[in-house]
C-alpha cells in the first residue's frame, strides 16, 4: 500500500491540546517570547515613570430606604413608594444614578466655586477654558471634568455607597469627594422639603376653602335657629361631634325642661309608691305592729317603761290585793303609759298619711306639667329637622377644617426638622499614595500583554512554519510511517558516530534496520531505494549505515550509488570511482567488474562510475531493471542510494522498479511543501513507500523526553561509568 496516499495530518490524534508539542513550540521560540515580554516590561516601566501620579480620595455614605419619622404620622413622600414596594435594589440603583447625576456635579461646582478656578484645572491636569469661552461653555467644561473623574458605586450586600474622585492633587480629590457626599445629602433634604412645600401649599388652599364653608354653615345654622325660635343651651356642632352626630343634639331649653320634669316625675312616682305602701300598712293592719311605730325611739322608751311597771304590778299583786293602794298605783301608771303609746302611734299614722298625700299631689302636678311640655317638644322637634341637617353640615365642615389644620401644622413642623435617610460614614482624607500609575499593575499588564503578543507571534510562526522538526511531524504533516529517527551527532562527524557502536547515531540506525526488517508482510524487501526531496539530507549516510547494519546480521548486502550527478558514496566508503553503475548500464563493464568489496563481511558496493552526459536516459533505458533482477539473485538485499526527487526524474523512475522506497527527511530543513511535492512525483510511479527517516534531529532543542528516548542520557551515563 502507498502510504503517501493517506490524508493530510495524523488523522485521529484528536482535537485536544498536545501539551508536549506546545512545550516544544514554546521552547523553540523561547527567544522570541523573552524578547517580546522583555520589551513590553521595559515599555511599561518607561511609561509608568513618565506618567503623572493621580490620587483617589473616597468617602462612604449609608443610604436607607426611608428616614426616621420625626412626627408620629410623618412619612417622607419621596421615600414612601420605595418603602411600600420593598424594591430595595431598584431604589439603591436610583440613588446611585442621582449620585452620579449632572445636578449633583453642578451643586459641587457651585459649593467649591470650581468654575474658572485655576487651581481646580491645574489639579485635574487640564488647561483652563479659553478666555473667549462663554459662561455656559466654561460651566459645561467644568461639569464634564467632574463627571469624568467621579465614581460612585454600592458595596455588594450592603447599603454603603462609595464616592471616589481622582485628580493629581490629593487635597482637591478629598475636598471634592467630601463635597459630593454633603451635596448628595443636601439635595436629598431639598427634594424632601420641596415635596412637603407642595403639600403645604395644597393643604393651605384646601384649608381656606374648608374655613369658608364652615363659617357659612354656622351662619346658616344660627339664622335658622333665630327664625324658628330654637334656643340651644350649647354649640350645636360641638355637641353633635361629642354625641356622635345623632338626633337633636343641640340641647334646646324645651327639651332640657322636659327631661328635668320627666326625671322629677319618675322620682315623685317612686316617692308616692313608697308612701302609699307605708300608709296602707298602717291603715289596714295592727298599728303597733307597723315598722314605723316599732322603730320609733319614744315608743321604744315607753314600751320599756311599761314593761318595768308591769313587773312592779306583778310583785305588788303577789303581796297585796287588787284594792291595795300600791297595786292601784301600778295599774294607773301602766294605763298612762299605754295612753302615751297610743297617742304617739296615732301621731305616726297621721304623719305617714300626710307624706302619702304630699307625694300624690306632687306626682299629679308633675304629670300635668309633663303633658303640657310634650306638646311643645313635639312642635319644636318638627322645627328642628332642618336645624339638625344644618348642624350636621356644620359639624362635617368643622371636622374637615380641624383635620386639615392639624396636618398643616405637622407639615410646617416637619419642614424644619426633617431627618435625612443618608448619612456620611467615612469622610475622604487626602491620600498619601497615588492610585495610579501602579508599577506592579502596569508590569503585570505588560507581562500579560507581552505573553499574549508573543503567543500570537509564535502561533503565526507555527502556522506559517511547515518545516519538519520532530518525529511526530512525519506522521502529522506527511501522513507517512516513521521508520526511524537519527539524532544529530554531538561534537563528532557522522562517520565517527557510526564507527562507535554505542553511540546514539549507531543505535538509531540499528532501530531503523529493525523497522525495515518488518516493513512489509514478507519482511525485508529485496530492493530498497533510499532518496530525499533535496540534496544533503543524509541519504548517503543512511544508505551506508543501513547496509552495514544488515551485513552484520549475515545478510549479503549490495549498496548501489545510482546518483550519477553528484555521487558521494565512493568518498564515504573510501573506494575508487573509475567504474561503476554508469559503466555497467552502458555495457562497458560487467557486474563482476564494478563490484567493490569492503572491509566488512557481506557488504559490497557499486559506485556511480564516471558521470554520464544524460543519467536519465541510462536509468529509463530498461537496462537498470535487468541489472537489479540479476543483482537480486546474487544478493539478499540491494540498496540504492539515489539522487533527490525534486527537479530530477531519476528517483521516480527508479522507485517504479524497486520493492520499497525510504524517504530521508532532515530535521529543521525539510519543508512540508517540498516533501509533499516529492511524494506526488513518486506517487505517479505507484511505488511502495515504506516510510520516512528523520535525520539530524537535535533532541536537546525540543525537550528532555526526546533526549532520554533517543539515548543521549543513557549513553552519556554509560560513557561516564566506563571512564
Descriptive notes:
This protein is an alpha/beta fold and 723 residues long. Among the domains are: 17-49 and 437-463, no CATH class; 483-714, P-loop containing nucleotide triphosphate hydrolases (Rossmann fold, 3-Layer(aba) Sandwich), CATH 3.40.50.300. It has 27 helices and twelve strands. The chain has helices at residues 19-28, 30-50, 77-85, 88-99, 102-112, 118-124, 135-149, 170-228, 236-242, 253-284, 291-294, 297-319, 325-417, 439-464, 471-478, 494-499, 504-517, 539-552, 569-573, 581-586, 591-594, 615-620, 623-634, 650-655, 672-683, 704-709, 712-722, and strands spanning 55-63, 150-154, 160-167, 422-426, 482-487, 527-532, 557-561, 596-597, 603-606, 637-641, 660-666, 689-697. It has an eight-stranded mixed sheet with strand order 5-12-11-6-10-7-9-8, sandwiched between helices. The protein has a four-stranded antiparallel sheet with strand order 2-3-1-4. Strand 2 and strand 3 form a beta hairpin. Helix 8 (170-228) crosses helix 13 (325-417). The longest helix is centred in the middle third of the chain and has 93 residues, at 325-417. Residues 1-15, 68-74, 76-85, 236-249 and 711-723 have low confidence and may be disordered.
Amino acid at each position: 500500500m502507498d502510504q503517501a496516499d493517506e490524508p493530510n495530518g495524523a488523522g485521529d490524534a484528536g482535537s485536544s491540546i498536545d501539551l508536549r508539542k506546545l512545550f516544544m513550540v514554546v521552547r523553540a521560540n523561547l527567544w522570541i517570547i523573552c524578547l517580546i515580554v522583555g520589551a513590553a516590561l521595559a515599555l511599561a516601566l518607561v511609561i509608568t515613570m513618565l506618567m503623572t501620579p493621580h490620587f483617589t480620595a473616597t468617602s462612604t455614605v449609608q443610604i436607607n430606604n426611608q428616614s426616621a419619622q420625626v412626627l408620629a404620622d410623618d412619612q417622607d413622600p419621596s421615600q414612601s413608594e420605595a418603602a411600600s414596594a420593598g424594591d430595595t435594589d431598584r431604589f439603591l440603583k436610583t440613588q446611585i444614578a442621582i449620585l452620579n447625576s449632572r445636578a449633583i456635579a453642578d451643586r459641587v461646582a457651585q459649593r467649591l466655586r470650581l468654575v474658572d478656578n485655576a487651581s481646580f484645572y491645574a489639579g485635574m491636569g487640564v488647561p483652563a477654558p479659553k478666555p473667549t469661552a462663554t459662561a455656559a461653555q466654561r460651566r459645561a467644561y467644568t461639569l464634564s471634568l467632574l463627571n469624568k473623574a467621579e465614581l460612585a458605586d454600592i458595596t455588594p450586600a450592603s447599603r454603603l455607597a462609595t464616592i471616589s474622585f481622582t485628580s493629581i492633587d490629593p487635597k482637591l480629590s478629598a475636598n471634592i469627594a467630601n463635597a459630593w457626599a454633603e451635596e448628595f445629602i443636601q439635595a436629598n433634604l431639598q427634594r424632601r422639603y420641596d415635596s412637603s412645600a407642595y403639600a403645604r401649599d395644597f393643604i393651605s388652599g384646601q384649608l381656606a376653602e374648608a374655613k369658608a364653608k364652615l363659617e357659612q354653615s354656622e351662619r346658616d345654622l344660627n339664622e335658622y335657629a333665630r327664625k324658628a325660635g330654637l334656643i340651644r343651651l350649647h354649640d350645636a356642632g360641638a355637641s353633635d361631634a361629642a354625641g356622635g352626630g345623632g338626633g337633636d343634639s343641640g340641647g334646646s331649653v324645651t327639651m332640657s325642661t322636659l327631661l328635668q320634669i320627666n326625671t322629677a316625675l319618675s322620682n315623685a312616682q317612686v316617692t308616692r309608691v313608697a308612701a302609699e305602701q307605708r300608709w296602707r300598712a298602717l291603715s289596714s293592719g295592727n298599728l303597733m305592729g307597723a315598722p314605723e311605730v316599732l322603730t320609733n325611739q319614744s315608743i321604744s322608751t315607753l314600751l320599756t317603761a311599761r314593761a318595768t311597771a308591769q313587773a312592779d304590778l306583778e310583785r305588788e299583786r303577789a303581796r297585796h290585793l287588787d284594792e291595795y293602794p300600791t297595786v292601784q298605783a301600778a295599774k294607773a301608771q301602766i294605763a298612762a303609759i299605754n295612753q302615751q303609746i297610743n297617742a304617739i302611734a296615732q301621731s305616726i299614722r297621721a304623719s305617714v298619711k300626710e307624706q302619702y298625700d304630699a307625694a300624690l299631689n306632687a306626682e299629679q302636678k308633675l304629670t300635668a306639667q309633663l303633658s303640657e311640655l310634650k306638646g311643645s317638644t313635639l312642635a319644636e322637634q318638627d322645627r328642628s329637622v332642618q336645624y339638625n341637617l344644618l348642624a350636621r353640615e356644620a359639624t362635617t365642615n368643622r371636622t374637615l377644617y380641624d383635620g386639615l389644620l392639624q396636618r398643616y401644622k405637622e407639615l410646617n413642623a416637619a419642614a424644619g426638622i426633617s431627618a435625612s435617610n443618608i448619612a456620611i460614614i467615612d469622610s475622604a482624607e487626602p491620600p498619601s499614595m497615588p492610585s495610579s500609575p501602579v508599577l506592579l499593575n502596569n508590569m503585570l499588564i505588560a507581562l500579560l500583554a507581552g505573553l499574549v503578543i508573543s503567543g500570537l507571534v509564535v502561533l503565526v510562526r507555527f502556522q506559517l512554519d511547515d518545516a519538519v522538526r520532530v518525529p511526530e511531524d512525519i506522521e502529522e504533516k506527511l501522513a507517512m510511517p516513521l521508520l526511524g529517527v537519527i539524532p544529530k551527532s554531538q561534537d563528532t562527524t557522522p562517520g565517527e558516530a557510526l564507527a562507535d557502536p554505542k553511540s546514539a547515531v549507531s543505535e538509531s540506525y540499528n532501530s531503523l534496520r529493525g523497522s525495515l526488517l518488518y516493513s512489509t508482510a514478507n519482511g525485508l524487501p529485496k530492493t530498497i531505494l533510499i532518496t530525499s526531496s533535496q540534496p544533503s539530507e543524509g541519504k548517503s549516510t543512511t544508505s551506508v549505515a543501513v547496509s552495514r547494519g544488515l551485513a552484520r546480521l549475515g545478510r549479503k548486502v549490495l549498496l548501489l550509488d545510482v546518483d550519477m550527478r553528484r555521487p558521494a558514496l565512493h568518498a564515504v566508503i573510501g573506494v575508487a570511482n573509475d567504474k561503476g553503475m554508469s559503466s555497467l548500464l552502458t555495457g562497458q563493464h560487467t557486474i563482476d567488474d564494478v563490484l567493490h568489496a569492503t572491509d566488512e563481511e557481506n557488504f559490497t558496493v557499486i559506485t556511480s562510475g564516471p558521470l554520464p552526459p544524460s543519467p536519465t536516459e541510462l536509468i529509463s533505458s530498461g537496462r537498470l531493471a535487468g541489472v537489479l533482477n540479476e543483482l537480486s539473485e546474487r544478493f539478499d538485499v540491494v540498496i540504492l542510494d539515489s539522487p533527490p526527487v525534486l527537479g530530477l526524474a531519476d528517483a521516480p523512475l527508479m522507485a517504479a522498479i524497486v520493492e520499497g522506497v525510504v524517504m530521508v527527511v532532515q530535521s529543521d530543513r525539510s519543508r512540508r511543501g517540498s516533501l509533499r511535492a516529492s511524494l506526488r512525483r513518486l506517487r505517479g510511479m505507484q511505488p511502495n513507500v515504506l516510510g520516512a527517516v528523520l535525520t539530524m534531529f537535535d533532541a536537546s532543542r525540543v525537550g528532555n523526553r526526546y533526549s532520554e528516548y533517543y539515548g543521549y542520557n543513557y549513553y552519556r551515563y554509560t560513557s561516564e561509568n566506563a571512564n
